[in-house]
C-alpha cells in the first residue's frame, strides 16, 4: 500500500513526493525500497504488487524497477485501505487463486529484517494451512497514543504456532491513561497494519462482511490484466465506500489471530518517532544531511541533498529543509505541523 | 566599490553572490541597485563607475544595465580600498580631468534618500570650489564598536557650508567603553566610508602620500579606455600595496573635512544591523521571504525566493536560507558565523 500523502512530514514530505518515496532515514534507500528489501527471499519480485495513486506510478516504477509495471495498481482516488486491499487481492486471485498474501504499508520502519522475515514466514505457514487472518501485533514499549491496539487471548494459542493467539478485540487509538493500562497488561499489542492471509480467506471475508464491495470487484475481474482494466477500475472506484480494512473486516471477522512480533517496528508517523529510528549523537540529535551542529541538543534535523546546514544553539527542535522549503518547530509542538502548511 | 565578499551573511551571501548583489531588505532592489538609485538626479548613468572583481562583472551589468559596460572596472584581485579608488579616479581623470567624485561602498543602506541627496549636493558644492577632501560622518545613535569614528573640530567650521567641519583625527573601531565616551561627546561621528573630492584633489593626495601607487596608475593611463587596459591593469594590480584609503590618504592628509550627516545610515555589516534596517513586526521579528511565524520573537528570518518557510517557537535567532543552504544561529552568537561555513 503506497498511496499515502504523508502530510505530517512537511516539508520533507509533500503531496507530490510523500514519505514512502523518501530516504527519511538517510540510508540511501527510500521507505518503499526498504519495505521491498524486507521481503527479499520471501517473495519473488514478480509476485510483489503495489497499490498507489496514479500520480505516483512513475515514482514507484523508478524506485522499484524490479517489479513488473503491470503489478503497480493505480487508484484513481483515495478510498482508505479496504478498497485498496480488495482490489489487489481480487487482482492476485485472477493470477493465482491459491496465493498466500502479506499486506503491508510501504512507509513503516523495521530494523531487524532477519527477525521480520522469520515472523512473516511463521505467519504464512499458518495461513497456508488454515482459513485464518493473521495480524501482526508489536509488543508495546511505551504508552503510545498514536497507534491502535490489539487485545489478544493469550490462553488461546494456536496449536500450530506458539506466537499466534486469537484476537479478543481491536482497540482504537487510546488516550494516555488507557494506553498506560494497555501497556501494563501483557496481552495488548500495537496494530502494525500488516496482515497475512490466503487469497481465498480475503475474498471470503469481503463476501461475508463487505458484500457490495466484493460484488464490484467480482464484476471487475474479467477486465483484470487487459487494456480495459484501468478504465473499468476508474469507473467504479469513486463509488466504493472509503473504509479501513480494520472496520470493514478485522473487527467483524471470527477466525482472526495476532502474531506476537518481537521486532522493533515504527510507523514513523511523527518527527518524534522518526528521531527514534535514526541513530542519535551523544547530544541526543538525529541528523540526516550535511549538517554542522554547535551547542545543539535533542533535535531532529533533516535536510535533503548535500547542501550545507549550520545549526547553533537549539534544544528540542525539528529542523527540516527541502528544496528551499523550511520548517523549524519545537518537537513538543509537532502535532500542529499539518496546520502549518495548509 | 562593489568587490566585497560578504562572508558574514552566509548563506544569504556567498563568495559567488555577495551581499551587494542581494535584495537583503526584501524591497525588490539589491543593495548595489539601491546605491545606484540614491544617486538618481545627482549623477547621470554614464558618469557612474563601478569597481569590482572580474567574477562579478556580469552581475553588475545585469543589475545595473543603465551603466555603460566600459564603466565597470575589474580588479584581478582584492587590494583593499586605496588601489580601488586610485584606479577609478585615474580612469575618470582620463575622461574628465575636472570631475567631482563621490566614492561610496555599494552595500550600505540609507533610508532617507532625499536627505542623502541634499547632503551629497552640499559636499560636492564644497569640493567643486576647494581642494578639500570631505568624508561623510554620521551622528552616532549608540556606542557601536563595529564602526570607525571621525573626531571633528566643531569650532572650525567651513565658512561656505555650516555642516562641514575640519577633521581632528580618524579613530579605529573602539572597544565598548571608548565607544561610549565617543557617543557622549558631540564631535565624534561614524565614518561611513563615503568620500567626496575632485579628481585633482585625489590625484594630488595619492601623489603626495602614496607616490609609488600614483606612479603606477600614471603609467597605466595611456592604456585606459583601450583594448589593452585590462591586460596592463592585471599586470600591475597584484603588486599594489593592499591598504585602505583611510590609512593611505585620510589619516595623512591635511585639507580634510567631515560633513555632519543626519540621515540614518548603516553598513549592514551584521545580521543584527540588518535586522534594524527591516521593519520589525510587533513581536520584534524582521522577516524577508514567504515566512509564517508562530510564537516567535526577536528573530531575523531571511529566506530567498518565494518558497514557504514556517518557524515556530524561536526567540532571538537568525534563520537564513538560500538555495537549500541553511543557517540557524542565536543573534548573540553572530560574530561566529564566518567560522561556521569555512
Helicity range of the residues of chain A?
25-40%
Radius of gyration of chain A: 21 Å
Beta-strand segment tally of chain A: 16
General form of chain A: globular
The string of secondary-structure elements of chain A, in order, is HEHEHEEHEEEHEHHHHEEHEEEEEEH
Oligomeric assembly: homodimer
For the largest interface in this structure, which chains are involved and how many residues does each contribute? Answer: A-B, 29 and 29 residues
Mean pLDDT of chain A: 94
Class per helix and strand makeup of chain A: alpha/beta
Distance between the termini of chain A: 25 Å
- Uncertain runs of chain A: none
Please provide a written account of the structure:
Two copies of one chain form a homodimer. The first copy, chain A, is of the alpha/beta class and 342 residues long. The first copy, chain A, is 30% helix and 25% strand. Chain A is built from eleven helices and 16 strands. A five-stranded mixed beta barrel of chain A has the order 5-8-6-7-9. A four-stranded mixed beta sheet of chain A has the order 11-13-15-16, covered by helices on one side. The first copy, chain A, has a two-stranded parallel sheet with strand order 1-2. In chain A, strand 1, helix 2 and strand 2 form a beta-alpha-beta unit. In chain A, helix 3 packs across helix 6, helix 3 (81-95) crosses helix 7 and helix 6 crosses helix 7 (211-220). The longest helix of chain A is centred in the middle third of the chain and has 17 residues, at 113-129. Chain A is globular and about 60 Å long. Chains A and B meet through strand 14, strand 15 and strand 16 of A and strand 14, strand 15 and strand 16 of B.
Amino acid at each position: 500500500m503506497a498511496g499515502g500523502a504523508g502530510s505530517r512530514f512537511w516539508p520533507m514530505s509533500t503531496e507530490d513526493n510523500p514519505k514512502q518515496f523518501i530516504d527519511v532515514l538517510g540510508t540511501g534507500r527510500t521507505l518503499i525500497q526498504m519495505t521491498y528489501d524486507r521481503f527479499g527471499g520471501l517473495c519473488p519480485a514478480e509476485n510483489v504488487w503495489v497499490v498507489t495513486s496514479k500520480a505516483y506510478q512513475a515514482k514507484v516504477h523508478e524506485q522499484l524497477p524490479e517489479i513488473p509495471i503491470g503489478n503497480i495498481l493505480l487508484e484513481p482516488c483515495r478510498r482508505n485501505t479496504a478498497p485498496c486491499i480488495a482490489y489487489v487481492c481480487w487482482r492476485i486471485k485472477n493470477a493465482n487463486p491459491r496465493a498466500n498474501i502479506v499486506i503491508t504499508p510501504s512507509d513503516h520502519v523495521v530494523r531487524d529484517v532477519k527477525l521480520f522475515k522469520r515472523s512473516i514466514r511463521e505467519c504464512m505457514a499458518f495461513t497456508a494451512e488454515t482459513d485464518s487472518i493473521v495480524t501482526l501485533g508489536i509488543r508495546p514499549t511505551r504508552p503510545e497514543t498514536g497507534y491502535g491496539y490489539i487485545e489478544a487471548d493469550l490462553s488461546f494459542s494456536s496449536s500450530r504456532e506458539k506466537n499466534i493467539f486469537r484476537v479478543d478485540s481491536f482497540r482504537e487509538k487510546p488516550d494516555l491513561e488507557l494506553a498506560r493500562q494497555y501497556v501494563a497488561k501483557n496481552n495488548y499489542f500495537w496494530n502494525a497494519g500488516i496482515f497475512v492471509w490466503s487469497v481465498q480467506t480475503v475474498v471470503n471475508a469481503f463476501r461475508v462482511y463487505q458484500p457490495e464491495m466484493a460484488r464490484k470487484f467480482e464484476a471487475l475481474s474479467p477486465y483484470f490484466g487487459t487494456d480495459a482494466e484501468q478504465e473499468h477500475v476508474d469507473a467504479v472506484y469513486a463509488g466504493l465506500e472509503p473504509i479501513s480494512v480494520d472496520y470493514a473486516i478485522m473487527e467483524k471477522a471470527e477466525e482472526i489471530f495476532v502474531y506476537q512480533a518481537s521486532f522493533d517496528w515504527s510507523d514513523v508517523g511523527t518527527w518524534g518517532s522518526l528521531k527514534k529510528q535514526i541513530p542519535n549523537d551523544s547530544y541526543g540529535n538525529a541528523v540526516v544531511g550535511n549538517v554542522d551542529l554547535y551547542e545543539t541538543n535533542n533535535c531532529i534535523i533533516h535536510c535533503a541533498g548535500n547542501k550545507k546546514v549550520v545549526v547553533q544553539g537549539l534544544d528540542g527542535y525539528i529542523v527540516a529543509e527541502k528544496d528551499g522549503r523550511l520548517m523549524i518547530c519545537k518537537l513538543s509542538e509537532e502535532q500542529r505541523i499539518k496546520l502549518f502548511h495548509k
